[in-house]
Amino acid sequence: MADSAQAQKLVYLVTGGCGFLGEHVVRMLLQQEPQLRELRIFDLHLGPWLEELKTGPVQVTAIQGDVTQAHEVAAAVAGAHVVIHTAGLVDVFGKTSPETIHEVNVQGTRNVIEACVQTGTRFLVYTSSMEVVGPNVKGQPFYRGNENTPYEAVHRHPYPCSKALAEQLVLEANGRKVLGGLPLVTCALRPTGIYGEGHQIMRDFYHQGLRLGGRLFRAIPASVEHGRVYVGNVAWMHVLVARELEHRAALMGGQVYFCYDNSPYKSYEDFNMEFLGPCGLRLVGTHPLLPYWLLVFLAALNVLLQWLLRPLLLYAPLLNPYTLAMANTTFTVSTDKARRHFGYEPLFSWEESRTRTIRWVQAVEGSAQ
Ligand SMILES: NC(=O)c1ccc[n+]([C@@H]2O[C@H](COP(=O)([O-])OP(=O)(O)OC[C@H]3O[C@@H](n4cnc5c(N)ncnc54)[C@H](O)[C@@H]3O)[C@@H](O)[C@H]2O)c1
Ligand SMILES: CC(C)CCC[C@@H](C)[C@H]1CC[C@H]2[C@@H]3[C@H](O)C=C4C[C@@H](O)CC[C@]4(C)[C@H]3CC[C@]12C
């Protein structure tokens, strides 16, 4: 066996390493990547939990920075072997302007690519999204499709538009010569709706249910399937891709992979009840309690209210025309491309993913009392 000094030789950078997914990627790398010598965590907002990681055998370097600032990105990337770029503005609720979403998600990604090219980093893993594909503006279903399934990917909302542009930049950068003359190897991972410990929207639904006396009211037909994937498995896919890109550059470079595991196909609300049910909430109704036209009306009303109230306060409810369309359109994946290309198998079974998520919701409940 190689001695540990020899084995620990790699420097990784995770952008957005303090976000929901980023934290899981960081922790997964520390647990599962024996070759790691230094782990750089770059984020606009650094979490206090980073301190506890600094006592381990891997050097953990926390870097407070902004992906829209090219010089900050270049300084963080210099000397890294692999960059995992998860930083992004995830906003489908109108909290931030379309310009800011574009600046962070598109220009931020351009800065990461240019930093790799200028400083000689050869491997770049990008966290894309299922929304690069759909649901599209026509609300056409994507039923258990894979990376090759034909689908009209047309978007108008700033978030999916920005993710699609950024993904395209990353894929086009595959093969560019980096400092030193070797080619850049890139690929993009497309998670469906991620769930698990730290999922803010799950927390919001939980608190909403508590406010409504332990009930949630069905808004979406149970027949609409919405793709979900456990955060631990998404993180594991990132770790595997980062590890295998060097050895399988010809096969994996410039490729996209949906993130998948054995989570069941269900509607968005029925899926959430897998966790919120055991925490004491009940989903009322076997059919949507409000007619669809009324939801469309309320969603449009929310847009108007958001606009009217903007000078006074930020009104950003969960329901708007885009989120309604997302929740109301079947979009699920069924693929084994990641297994074929880099040997991915989910690290967490559905039962374990479910148990971990329930325990986390219960802890949220405990800490709220
Ligand atoms: N949550 C999901 O269901 C989901 C699904 C598919 C894809 N994704 C993608 O996964 C990635 C992570 O999403 P998440 O759910 O963990 O979101 P998140 O908001 O929890 O994490 C994003 C992180 O990026 C950081 N960040 C934002 N702007 C930045 C900037 N200008 N400079 C540096 N850091 C910045 C944030 O501080 C945050 O820590 C995103 O790229 C998102 O598009 C998320
Ligand atoms: C009709 C309402 C009562 C229900 C609203 C649910 C809505 C907030 C949910 C439904 C689908 C969710 C999105 C989906 O899981 C996938 C993604 C991809 C990812 O890149 C970012 C998060 C996002 C957009 C989820 C956000 C919350 C949504 C819209």
UniProtKB/TrEMBL annotation:
Residues 13-283 form the 3-beta hydroxysteroid dehydrogenase/isomerase domain. It is found in: Endoplasmic reticulum membrane. Its EC number is 1.1.1.181. One of its GO terms (molecular function) is cholest-5-ene-3-beta,7-alpha-diol 3-beta-dehydrogenase activity. It is an enzyme of class 1 (oxidoreductase). GO terms for cellular component: endoplasmic reticulum membrane. It catalyses: 7alpha-hydroxycholesterol + NAD(+) = 7alpha-hydroxycholest-4-en-3-one + NADH + H(+); 7alpha,25-dihydroxycholesterol + NAD(+) = 7alpha,25-dihydroxy-4-cholesten-3-one + NADH + H(+); (25R)-cholest-5-en-3beta,7alpha,26-triol + NAD(+) = (25R)-7alpha,26-dihydroxycholest-4-en-3-one + NADH + H(+); (24S)-7alpha-dihydroxycholesterol + NAD(+) = (24S)-7alpha,24-dihydroxycholest-4-en-3-one + NADH + H(+). Pfam families: 3Beta_HSD. The chain crosses the membrane at residues 289-309. It is a multi-pass membrane protein. Coiled coil: none annotated. Pathway: Lipid metabolism; steroid biosynthesis; Steroid biosynthesis. GO terms for biological process: steroid biosynthetic process. Keywords: Endoplasmic reticulum, Lipid metabolism, Membrane, NAD, Oxidoreductase, Steroidogenesis, Transmembrane, Transmembrane helix. Belongs to the 3-beta-HSD family. The 3-beta-HSD enzymatic system plays a crucial role in the biosynthesis of all classes of hormonal steroids. HSD VII is active against four 7-alpha-hydroxylated sterols. Does not metabolize several different C(19/21) steroids as substrates. Involved in bile acid synthesis. Plays a key role in cell positioning and movement in lymphoid tissues by mediating degradation of 7-alpha,25-dihydroxycholesterol (7-alpha,25-OHC): 7-alpha,25-OHC acts as a ligand for the G protein-coupled receptor GPR183/EBI2, a chemotactic receptor for a number of lymphoid cells. This is 3 beta-hydroxysteroid dehydrogenase type 7. It comes from Physeter macrocephalus.
